[in-house]
Amino acid sequence: MSERASEPSAPSVAVRIEGLHKSFGSTEVLKGIDLEVQRGEVLCIIGASGSGKSTLLRCVNLLETPSAGTVVVDGHEMTDPDCDLDRARRSIGMVFQGFNLFSHLTVLENLTIAQRRVLGRDRAAAEEIARENLAKVGLAGREDAHPAQLSGGQQQRVAIARSLSMQPDVMLFDEPTSALDPELVGDVLDVMRTLAAEGMTMLVVTHEIQFAREVADRVLFIDAGVIHEMGPPEQVIGDPRQERTRAFLSRVLHAAKPPESDTAPAG
Amino acid sequence: MALTPRQRARVSRGIQYAIALVVVAVVAFTADWGAIGRAFFDVEVAASLFPDVIVVALKNTVVFTALGFLLALGIGLLVALMRLSSVRVYRAVAFLYVEVFRGLPALLVVLSIGVGIPLAFGTLLDHTLSITLALGIVGGAYIAETIRAGIQAVPPGQVEAARSLGMSPTRTMVFIVLPQAFRTVLPPLTNELILLTKDSSLAFLLGTTLAQQELSQFGRAALNQVRSLTPLLVVGLCYLVITIPLSYLARRLERKYGSADKKVDA
Ligand SMILES: Nc1ncnc2c1ncn2[C@@H]1O[C@H](COP(=O)(O)OP(=O)(O)O)[C@@H](O)[C@H]1O
Ligand SMILES: [Mg+2]
To answer: Which residue's CA is the nearest one to ligand 1's atom 16?
Structure first.
C-alpha cells in the first residue's frame, strides 16, 4: 500500500462490478455478478461454453450494455449514462478470440491508427511505441505485413501489441488462443505470461487450465451467469469445492486435447 | 436401322450445320453487298463525323458521366449512412429516396429536372448542371444500396476492435469501416459507372445547342443527314471504348479484392 500512496489518482481496485445483470431479450445471461479485480491482478475466468464469460468481459468495457448493475474501471463509472466511454476505453485493452485485426491496414498501421486518431500522437511517436510493442510480442520486422499474410498466432500477438500500444491499465482477453492451431498457442500464452509478470491487470477468459493454474492470481468459475467459485488457482482448480466446478474441470482436462498443448514450447 | 442415342445426336448436329451453311450461302450470293456495306458503314460519312464526335460528343458524354457519378457517389454515401443511422427519420427518408429513384425510369427524372424545375421555379438550370443532377440522383439511389451492402459486409469484429480502442463511432466509420467497405464495393461501383455512361444519353432530352450534344444525340442528328447507319456505328464504338475498359477494370478489381483474405504467405 505504501508505494501506491504516492499516486493518489490510481485506486488499488482496477475493476469493480456490482450487481451486474445482462439479458438478451427475455434470456438472462448474467444473473447478478459481483467482482473486484485489484491493480496488477490476473483473473482467469473459466466456465462452459454459453455460461456468459464473453458477455461478462464485454460488459467491462461496455461493448455490451448491462441491463442492471454498476461497472467501474479505473475510476471511470462505465455504467453512468454520462460516462465518456470512448475516453474510458482508451485505457482498457481488449483481445478477441478472432483477433479482429484491421484487414485493410498493415501491421504497423494496425498499431498506430488508434494512437494517432484517438490519442492524437504524431506518426513518429506512434510508430516508435508500435515498434517497441511489436518487438515485445516477438514480431519485430513484420511491420509491413498485412494481417492475412500472418499465421493465427502471429495475428493474435499483433492484436495484443495493438492494445498495448494504447498503454492500457487493464487488459481483457476473450479466449485468445481458442481459434489457434495447438502449436501456435504457446507463443501467445508466453506473451501473456510476460505481461502478467510485468504487473498488467488482466481479465482472461480461457480454457487453458494449465495457464490459469500457473499465471492467475485468482480463478473465477462461472456457470449459467452466476459466479460459483472464485479464489486462488490452487483452490478453484486444485481443490474445487463445488461439484459443477469439478465436473467442468474434468471435462476440460480429459475430453480436450490429449497432449497438454500449453506446456509445449519453453522460452 | 436402329441408331444409338449418340449416333442420333451426331446426325442431328450434322443436319443443323448443313442448314446453317445453306442459309449463309443464300444470303451471301443474293445480297447486294456494296449497298449493304454502305448502309452500315460508309468511310466518307465516318470521316465527316470527326473530329466533332470526339471533341464534342465523346467529351460531353465523359463529362456528364463523370460529374453525375461524383454526385451519385456523394449522395450514395450519404443515403447509405442515413439508412444505417439509428435515427428513424433518416432511415425513412433514405428508404423512400432509394425506392422512388430506383423505381422510376431515368428518363422521367431527367425530364423532371430539365423541364420541371425551370417550369416550377421560373429559372433555367445550366444544361450540364441539369444532367449532372439527374444522373447523380438516379445513380445515387443505386449506389446507396451498393455502399450499404458493402458497409454491412464488414465483419462486426472490426467495429468492436475499433470501439474497444476508444475510437468514436464516427472515427470507426471513417478509418475502419468505409475503407474496407469501399474495397468490396469497387467492382459494383465500376458497373454503376458503366450504367451511368449509358444513362448519360438521356441528356438528348435537354440538349439544345450543338456544343451540348453528347454521343447519342450527336449520332441521332448525324443520322438525319445521311442515308447510312454509320453515325450510330461510330457513336456505338465510342461508347464501347469507354465501357469495355471499365468492365475489364471491374473484373480486375473483383479478382484483386475478392480474394484478399486468401493470400497467405509461407
Ligand atoms: N448478442 C447476443 N444476442 C443474443 N444472445 C446472446 C448474445 N450474445 C450472447 N448471447 C447468449 O448469451 C449466452 C452466453 O454467451 P457468452 O457470454 O458468449 O458465453 P461464453 O462466452 O461463456 O461461451 C449464450 O447462450 C449466448 O447464446
Ligand atoms: Mg465466449
So the answer is: A52
Answer whether A90 sits within 8 Å of B166, measured CB to CB: yes
Question: Residue A232 falls within a domain, yes or no?
Answer: yes
Q: Looking at the domain assignment, is residue A5 inside a domain? A: no
Q: How far apart are CA B236 and CA B256, in angstroms?
A: 30
Decide if B171 and A117 are in contact by the 8 Å CB cutoff: yes
Q: Do B167 and A166 touch (CB under 8 A)?
A: no
A93 touches chain B (CB under 8 A): yes
Query: Is A3 among the domain residues?
Result: no
Q: Which domain holds residue A94?
A: 13-255
Per-residue pLDDT tens for A61-80? Answer: 999 999 999 999 999 999 99
CATH number at residue A124: 3.40.50.300
Q: How many angstroms away from the CA of A24 is the closest CA of chain B?
A: 18
In B10-121, which ranges are E strands?
none
List domains and CATH numbers for chain B: 42-265 (1.10.3720.10)
CA B177 to chain A, closest CA, distance in angstroms equals: 9
Residue A62 CA to residue B93 CA, distance in Å, equals: 31
Identify the three-state secondary structure at position A170: strand
pLDDT for position B242: 93
pLDDT at A11: 67
Q: Shortest CB distance from B165 goes to which of A98, A103, A118?
A: A118
Task: Report the chain A residue with the minimal C-alpha distance to residue B183.
Answer: A104
| Whole-complex ipTM | 0.90
Low-confidence ranges of chain B (pLDDT < 50): 259-266
Return the pLDDT at B265. 35
Q: Is the pTM of this model over 0.90?
A: no
DSSP-based three-state secondary structure for B130: helix
In this prediction, residue B27 carries a pLDDT of: 82
Is B32 an 8 Å CB contact of chain A? no
DSSP calls for B171-211? HIIIIIIHHHHHHHHHHHHHHHHHHHHHHGGGGGGT--SGG
